[in-house]
Amino acid sequence: MTGRTVSLETITDMETLKNLCLRIFLPAPGENIVFGEGPEPARLALIGEAPGKEEAKTGRPFVGNAGRLLNKYLEEAGIAREDVYITNVLKVRPPGNRTPGKAEIKESLPFLLRQIELIHPAVIVCLGSIAVQAILEPKAKITQIRGEWREKDGTKVIPTYHPAAIFHDEEKKELFKKDLLQVGKVLRGLE
Ligand code: URA
Hints:
Elements: H1 14-24, E1 44-48, H2 53-58, H3 65-76, E2 84-88, H4 102-119, E3 123-127, H5 129-135, H6 142-145, E4 150-152, E5 155-160, H7 170-190
Parallel strand pairs: 1-2, 1-3, 3-5
Antiparallel strand pairs: 4-5
Bound molecules: uracil.
Pfam family, one: UDG
Domain Uracil-DNA glycosylase-like: 35-181
GO molecular function, one term: deaminated base DNA N-glycosylase activity
């Protein structure tokens, strides 16, 4: 990231925010930034950790194995993926897919928070500990907080597992499914 100071509050549209991210976050050669995708505004926003290999290749969030699993559970919960805004805390893939570091999260967070303000969701789902620690509680443990509804600036927030963490764990799959079913119900209740 450059040392440039920007006042993100002055940015009032997603295209400008995206262009700023394109100038600031530098992906590895051959990779793309993954800004996020979905309707604007959206009633539901999903926040993941950081783009993986497939995402960096395509420039789209959650299009790899974790994304396919996510799609399956969204569908089971009666939530259409195309109605959801999906993004990540980090906009570029950390080298070697490692867990994002504190400094990376700190420099990416203002962009995510502005993005959320512009999407103006009624419900946010934090997928995994990086998302929940970034936007809700810095010391939260996902195993303790998952499935518990919280509020952030008037928006309902529910933490759940990251889909990549449930692959080989039937119990976690059930809990993930339960959380998304809850989300579907809440969204329908808000209609
Ligand atoms: N994992 C994430 O956290 N985000 C993606 O977009 C893909 C995998």
